[in-house]
Amino acid sequence: MTTLELDRIAGCAEPAQHAKNQQIEPLRERGQREVFCGLTGIVWLHRKIQDAFFLIVGSRTCAHLMQSAAGVMIFAEPRFATAILEERDLAGLADANEELDAVVQRLLARRTDIKTLFLVGSCPSEVIKLDLKRAAARLSAQYAPDVRILNYSGSGIETTFTQGEDACLAAIAEQSPAETSEETSLVVVGALADVVEDQFARMFEEMGVAPVRFLPARKSAEMPAIGPNTRYLLAHPYLRDTAAALEERGAQRIPAPFPLGVEGVTAWLKAAADAWGVPQQTFDDVTAAPRARGARSLERYRAALAGKRAFFFPDSQLEIPIARFLARELGMKLTEVGTPYLHRAHLSEEIEMLPDGVQLSEGQDVDKQLDRCRDLRPDITVCGLGLANPLEAEGLATKWSIELVFTPIQGYDQCADLAELFARPLLRRERLTV
Ligand code: SF4
Predict the structure, then answer these.
(1) Fold match between domain 38-159 and domain 185-282
(2) Strand 309-312 with 212-215, pairing
(3) What does the DSSP assignment read for 230-253?
(4) 3-class DSSP state for residue 361?
(5) What is the mean pLDDT of the chain?
(6) Which of 21, 41, 241, 360 has the most Cβ atoms closer than 10 angstroms to its Cβ?
(7) What CATH homologous superfamily does 185-282 map to?
């Protein structure tokens, strides 16, 4: 969606914690970047939080983006919309706050099912400095306790597409209820498909890890309480601001790799099991069958993908865990693994598991990166939609990184689906070239 100067590389990296981490130095680039903006997160977040509504305060461009991103969905009652800033608002001739209040009033009068309303900032609302935090506080006072009104930014000036989820969850974490008990609880952080969430909840229960809550919850009233007795486990690597908001309230992170691939899922579950003192035998009893099922499901993909070379453009921030999975469980070779931001504290376990000598890059200078990709001629290139078509036209097989977020890929039973995402474009290209 945007072609912008990358200005947030510095400060993302934190001190390396492991010897091998210190050896891997990413190529850091600052230049033009090609990414979707954070509004895109609404496409999966509105499905997850079933009584929430996302009101984008933006332009016709924002509305078009959302229509195309969610275009195939059919709604009985839509759960997102755009309040369009017109020229009079942008020129400061109208009071945008008054207009926003009127839009919210009409929306909430018509839709009594809405329990949380997110005011989502965009590039235009930021350019005219419309203070949505104050608007959310003002409107919350008016509509509480029936409706909670939160705000976050999905603007492409500030965010890549997965950062929209991070900003949304950080807003929820800041306002989540305080703990009322001294019992230690586990909060799994990151929007997961319901089917994946149910699988994890079942395994935690069988291991005796309890109580377990998910952030975000499916219903506004079920958002987890947060406080010093909260231990949290990140389900995605792109939740830096959410983690900071949780820690601000006293919660402590359980360090772990991410639950992608058999190995990643096992290590992720084990980190929580160890924090709860679960005996090894219990852990093995609970995980052995799904683990074996996951490993078996990967066999045919390994045969198809082993030795194939993958190149990652920076986009989703899922690049490093997925590259680890492709290399270790499917035998693929990594040519370059790009990520928009390298958060070493959250990714240190993942970086430890990458093959020696892997080329990481952080940030982007898209023309230089395209040149490197063309020189390397990888078998598969993971990139945003804007780069995929030109690269396909040049004879390179591509995988849209946004599919990695739209598809349930976490958990043992989804390992094959994740592998399939990479096998399919290669198979298609083979068929086309025969
Ligand atoms: S928020 Fe910015 S980048 Fe995203 S659709 Fe709106 S104008 Fe485009």
Answers:
(1) yes
(2) unpaired
(3) EEEEESSTT-HHHHHHHHHTT-EE
(4) strand
(5) 90
(6) 41
(7) Nitrogenase molybdenum iron protein domain (3.40.50.1980)
Instruction: Name the residue of 65, 66, 127, 128 whose CB sits within 8 Å of the most ligand 1 atoms, as the mutation to test its pocket.
Output: 65
Furthest C-alpha separation in the chain: 69
Using CA atoms, how far apart are residues 309 and 331, in angstroms rounded to an integer?
10
Cα of 62 from ligand 1 centre, angstroms:
5
- Span from the CA of 269 to the centroid of ligand 1 (angstroms): 37
Q: In testing the pocket of ligand 1, which one of 3, 43, 59 has its CB within 8 Å of the most ligand atoms? A: 59
- CA distances from residue 26 to 6, 129, 264, 359 in whole angstroms, order as listed: 16, 35, 22, 7
Distance, CA of 176 to CA of 154 (rounded, Å) = 21
Residue 349 identity:
E
Domain range list for the chain: 2-33+294-433, 38-159, 185-282
Would you state the pLDDT for residue 364? 86
* CA–CA separation, 434 and 425 (whole Å): 14
- Candidates 22, 14, 346, 32; CA nearest to 162 is 346
Closest CA to ligand 1's atom 3? 156
Share of the chain above pLDDT 70, in %: 91
The tokens describing 13, both together, are 């990296």
Domain 38-159: top CATH class: alpha beta
Question: Does this model's pTM top 0.85?
Answer: yes
pLDDT at residue 6, rounded to an integer: 27
